[in-house]
């Protein structure tokens, strides 16, 4: 049997990959994509724990995480579209109106 | 209980006029004058009570109770105090009335009345004090009032400077005074007069090693040190040499207060203090000698300066200093009663002289230089005759009060051993000078032809005063000003006949039975009279008969004239020795410490904060990924630290 | 067998995840993500979470990815994208975090190792807990509609709010005839936006 720690490490790798993606990509769309990566990683983690601890709650939580991810994507993309209309750019470096 | 009203009535006047002056305005005298009059009547009653029976001791309330330090506010009214009460209330009352005319129409009218009411209150509390702390508090209070009143016309820089000078010079003396009071508490454990006097004899033999801080050895009598310290306060307050410099400058204030404060009452507080503390001084011959010499020196010194001054008030001011020297000299020689006698008579005629000066000044529209006066005898008759009476009293003309009191001092001085006789000679010389300069004033200001509106000795443009053609418009001032003059003139004569020294003698004893030497009384009286008359005669010669004589003498004795005219350069000396260095040090401290260090530190903190915030705000780049980086970094670091700590 | 499938799925997941982040062309990134989703679903199946696997495919791969594709194509992003200035910092941070987590897992794993092993033994012994016997979907459903009913309702509300929000955010005509709701966001505008004047 695959030990739980393997799943946790896998989840960690994917999560950190997503985090690095958030930090280094300039395209907003890819940024949001990286966030999806992170969410998926946590899903993997939850399901693994649900299996290993014999508790269905993990899977239920994944269900909700999925829901929230979907909602977030919808709203996020809508924001990006609205921003694009204002500034004609998807370069996140150009969205610095909150600069001091 | 009525004794408490004596000071409280003027105090109430001060409060009322002070608070409501804006609405009272020119009606202020309706409050002040009755208050002082009431005070006077109550003082008469107190005087009557004390004259017949025992002194009055009254504790009003317990002020400080702190461990062994107990101070009350209380009254001790004996014959000396009663006499002072009368002096203060009479002169104050007359000055109040005089002010109605003198300050008429001035914008600071109510403020002036409130301040002289405050002064009257303070002076009354001072003379009625029964302990050293109360004395000191009201000593300072009269100093404060002096400051306020000298600087009454505060838009004049010279007045403000003079007020500050008066206060600061007084403070110098009061520093020693304060030390003396602390020493009294340290030695006697109490500050009440009666308790201190009772214990005084028991510590008569003790000594203090004065050079102890410097590691030396010089035992000085404890009481001597004490008396000398207390005396420094008197030196300041009563304008003795070397702290006399403030009094002539104080003439910047309105003339009524020159009469009240700087002639009759405040400056006499020093003499009063020495007399009041006679039991202490009697036990310290060394201190008494110092007092006497200081007094004699002051008398002569001031008289020499008064000879050449051209400002009418300055002459009278220096004569005040000189007469105060007489009083101090008398006290120093053990003749306290004579000193106080002279204090009382002097209060009358000096106040008179000042008020006459005020009358002249008002009549001539604020002209004060006697070289631009003259011929006023016909125009201001009342002022002239009262001025003459005052001058005669000052000069010690026979039968005036001044004659009797000055004589009393000289007689007592002569019977006081070698020192006393030396000082008596000094006193006689001073009497000659006094007569000379006071009648110089009379002849130059009132006799001769009118030089009003002329340009002064050097022929410059006419100053603040009148133009020559206005000389015809000079007239006697209003009755509110002339009536006090006449009252004081009467007092200047009759106070000699009231038997004051005999009245005070039971209360003010000298160190030993100094009844010896009275066989010299008559010759002294004669010599003193001769001095006075010859002084008047010389003045007549110089200023009426041969007016070119002073001019010639001035040319011949240029150096001496310069010394006298420039007040022996004492002010310049003090300026060089004390004022300049202090200003320099202050300036240095200001530049080096205050600006360079403290301001820099404060500004530095502000600048540091600004720098810090300017650097920190660069974090707010507006870019989301920078913020995300920060979060990630934080998470990683915290996790790392946590893991490290688990080891 | 289980190990092999885990390594296959895990490996592809890692690879595609890195590709998502590293590829310059956004379409390629999206396709890589699609691949990843499929393999995650596979992973779920190996973990006996069949229902979730299917939901994952339907929702993530079927809806969310399609949405991304729509937006990418709508915005016509053909441009090449260079990395941010902080690329090295980000990567090193990621590696550091990975090291920390691996460390935690491995050291903690030793402590909880036996327990996990026990449960895996139990699972492997073929005597599965109630969660497995009724079938995954049923089990999830039972949990969802009894214990977790309230969060379930809230989740539906979230979806409602997201729907409304998305519509509002891109709707034109709220703040003027041409403008969208984010008026004044600044910069040169794609469409005519009257109040945008601020320079970058």
Quickly describe the structure:
The complex is a heterotrimer of chains A (100), B (647) and C (200). By secondary structure, chain A is mainly alpha-helical.
Descriptive key words:
heterotrimer, A: 100 residues, mainly alpha, Helix Hairpins, 78% helix, elongated, B: 647 residues, two-stranded antiparallel ribbon, two-stranded antiparallel sheet, globular
Task: Give a verbal description of the structure.
With about 100 residues, chain A is an all-alpha fold. Chain A has a single domain (about 5-90), classed as Helix Hairpins (Orthogonal Bundle). Chain A has helices at about 5-25, 30-55, 55-85. The radius of gyration of chain A is 17 Å and the shape is elongated. Chain A starts with a helix and ends in a 13-residue tail after the last helix. The model of chain A has no long low-confidence stretch (mean pLDDT about 90). With about 650 residues, chain B is mainly α. Among the domains of chain B are: about 285-455 and about 465-560, no CATH class; about 570-645. In chain B, about 70% of the residues lie in helices and about 5% in strands. In chain B, strand 1 (about 55-65) and strand 2 (about 70-75) form a beta hairpin. The longest helix of chain B is centred in the C-terminal third of the chain and has 47 residues, at about 570-615. Chain B starts with a helix and ends with a helix. Residues about 455-465 of chain B have low confidence and may be disordered. With about 200 residues, chain C is mainly alpha-helical. Helices cover about 70% and strands about 0% of the residues of chain C. Chain C has helices at about 1-20, 25-45, 50-75, 85-125, 135-145, 150-170. Chain C is globular. At the A-C interface, helix 1, helix 2 and helix 3 of A face helix 1, helix 2, helix 3, helix 4 and helix 5 of C.
Q: State the distance separating the first and last CA atoms of chain B.
A: 87 Å
Largest sheet of chain B, if any?
2 strands, antiparallel
Architecture per CATH nomenclature, i.e. the level-2 architecture of chain A? Orthogonal Bundle
The helix content of chain B is over 70%
- Please tell me how large the radius of gyration of chain B is: 30 Å
Which pair has the most extensive contact? A-C, 76 and 104 residues
Structural class of the secondary elements of chain A? mainly alpha
**Spatial separation of the terminal alpha carbons of chain A:** 54 Å
- Categorize the overall geometry of chain A: elongated
What count of helical segments of chain B does DSSP give? Answer: 26
Tally of strands of chain B: 4
Q: Return Rg of chain A in Å.
A: 17 Å
Strand content of chain A: under 5%
Topology-level CATH name of chain A: Helix Hairpins
Strand order of the largest sheet of chain B: 1-2
Total number of distinct structural domains of chain A:
1
């Amino acid at each position: 049997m695959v030990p739980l720690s393997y799943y946790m490490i896998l989840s960690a790798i994917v999560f950190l990959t997503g985090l690095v993606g958030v930090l280094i990509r300039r395209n907003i769309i890819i940024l949001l994509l990286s966030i999806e990566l992170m969410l998926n990683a946590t899903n993997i983690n939850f399901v693994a724990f649900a299996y290993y601890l014999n508790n269905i709650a993990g899977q239920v939580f994944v269900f909700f995480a999925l829901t929230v991810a979907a909602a977030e994507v919808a709203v996020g993309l809508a924001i990006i579209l609205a921003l694009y209309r204002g500034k004609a750019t998807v370069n996140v470096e150009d969205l610095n109106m909150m600069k001091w | 209980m009525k004794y408490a009203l004596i000071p409280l009535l003027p105090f109430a006047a001060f409060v009322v006029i002070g608070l409501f002056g804006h609405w009272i305005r020119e009606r202020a005298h309706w409050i002040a004058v009755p208050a002082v009059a009431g005070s006077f009547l109550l003082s008469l009653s107190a005087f009557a009570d004390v004259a017949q029976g025992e002194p009055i001791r009254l504790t009003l309330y317990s002020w400080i109770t702190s461990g062994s330090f107990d101070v009350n506010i209380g009254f001790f009214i004996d014959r000396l105090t009663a006499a002072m009460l009368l002096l203060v209330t009479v002169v104050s009352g007359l000055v109040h009335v005089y002010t109605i005319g003198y300050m008429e129409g001035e914008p600071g009218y109510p403020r002036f009345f409130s301040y002289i009411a405050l002064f009257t209150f303070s002076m009354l509390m001072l003379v009625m004090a029964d302990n050293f702390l109360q004395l000191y508090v009201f000593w300072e209070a009269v100093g404060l009032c002096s400051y306020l009143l000298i600087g009454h016309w505060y838009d004049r820089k010279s007045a403000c400077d003079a007020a500050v000078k008066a206060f600061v010079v007084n403070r110098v003396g009061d520093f020693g005074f304060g030390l003396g009071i602390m020493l009294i508490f340290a030695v006697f454990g109490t500050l009440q007069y009666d308790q201190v006097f009772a214990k005084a004899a028991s510590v008569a033999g003790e000594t203090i090693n004065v050079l102890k801080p410097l590691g030396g050895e010089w035992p000085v009598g404890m009481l001597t040190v004490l008396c000398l310290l207390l005396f420094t306060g008197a030196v300041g307050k009563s304008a003795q040499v070397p702290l006399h410099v403030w009094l002539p400058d104080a003439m910047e204030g309105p003339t009524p207060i020159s009469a009240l404060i700087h002639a009759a009452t405040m400056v006499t507080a020093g003499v009063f203090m020495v007399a009041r503390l006679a039991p202490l001084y009697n036990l310290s011959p060394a201190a008494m000698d110092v007092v006497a010499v200081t007094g004699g020196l002051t008398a002569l010194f001031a008289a020499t300066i008064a000879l050449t001054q051209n400002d009418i008030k300055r002459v009278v001011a220096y004569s005040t200093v000189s007469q105060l020297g007489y009083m101090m000299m008398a006290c120093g020689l053990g003749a306290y009663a004579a000193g106080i006698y002279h204090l009382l008579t002097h209060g009358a005629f000096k106040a008179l002289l000042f008020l006459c000066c005020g009358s002249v000044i008002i009549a001539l529209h604020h002209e004060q230089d006697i070289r631009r006066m003259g011929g006023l005898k016909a125009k201001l008759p009342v002022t002239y005759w009262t001025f003459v009476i005052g001058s005669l009293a000052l000069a010690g003309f026979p039968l005036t009060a001044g004659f009797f009191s000055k004589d009393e001092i000289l007689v007592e001085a002569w019977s006081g051993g070698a020192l006393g006789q030396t000082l008596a000679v000094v006193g006689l010389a001073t009497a000659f000078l006094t007569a000379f300069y006071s009648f110089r004033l009379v002849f130059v200001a009132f006799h001769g032809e009118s030089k009003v509106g002329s340009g002064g000795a050097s022929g410059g443009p006419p100053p603040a005063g009148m133009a020559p053609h206005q000389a015809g418009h000079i007239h006697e001032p209003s009755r509110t000003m002339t009536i006090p003059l006449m009252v004081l003139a009467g007092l200047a004569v009759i106070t000699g006949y009231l038997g004051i020294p005999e009245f005070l003698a039971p209360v003010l004893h000298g160190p030993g039975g100094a009844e010896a030497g009275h066989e010299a009384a008559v010759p002294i009286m004669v010599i003193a009279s001769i001095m006075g008359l010859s002084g008047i005669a010389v003045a007549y010669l110089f200023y009426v008969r041969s007016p070119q004589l002073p001019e010639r003498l001035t040319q011949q004795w240029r150096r001496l004239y310069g010394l006298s005219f420039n007040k022996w350069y004492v002010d310049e000396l003090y300026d060089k020795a004390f004022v300049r260095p202090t200003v320099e040090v202050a300036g240095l401290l200001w530049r080096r410490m205050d600006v360079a260090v403290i301001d820099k530190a404060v500004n530095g903190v502000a600048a540091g904060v600004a720098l810090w915030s300017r650097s920190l705000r660069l974090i707010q780049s507006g870019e989301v990924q920078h913020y995300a980086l920060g979060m990630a970094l934080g998470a990683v670091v915290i996790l790392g630290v946590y893991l490290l700590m688990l080891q | 067998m289980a190990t092999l499938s885990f390594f296959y799925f895990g490996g592809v997941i890692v690879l595609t995840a890195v590709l998502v982040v590293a590829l310059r062309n956004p379409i390629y990134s999206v396709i890589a993500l699609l691949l990843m989703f499929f393999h995650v679903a596979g992973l779920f199946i190996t973990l006996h979470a069949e229902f979730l696997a299917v939901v994952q495919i339907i929702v993530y791969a079927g809806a969310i990815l399609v949405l991304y594709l729509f937006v990418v194509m709508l915005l016509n992003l053909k441009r090449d994208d260079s990395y941010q200035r902080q690329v090295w910092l980000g990567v090193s941070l990621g590696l550091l975090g990975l090291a920390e987590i691996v460390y935690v897992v491995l050291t903690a794993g030793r402590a909880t190792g036996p327990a996990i092993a026990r449960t895996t033994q139990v699972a492997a012994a073929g005597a599965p807990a109630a969660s497995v016997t009724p079938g995954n979907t049923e089990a999830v459903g039972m949990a969802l509609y009894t214990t977790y009913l309230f969060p379930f309702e809230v989740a539906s509300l979230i979806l409602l709010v997201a729907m409304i929000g998305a519509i509002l955010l891109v709707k034109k005509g709220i703040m003027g005839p041409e403008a969208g709701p984010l008026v004044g966001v600044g910069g040169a505008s794609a469409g005519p936006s009257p109040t945008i004047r601020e320079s970058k």
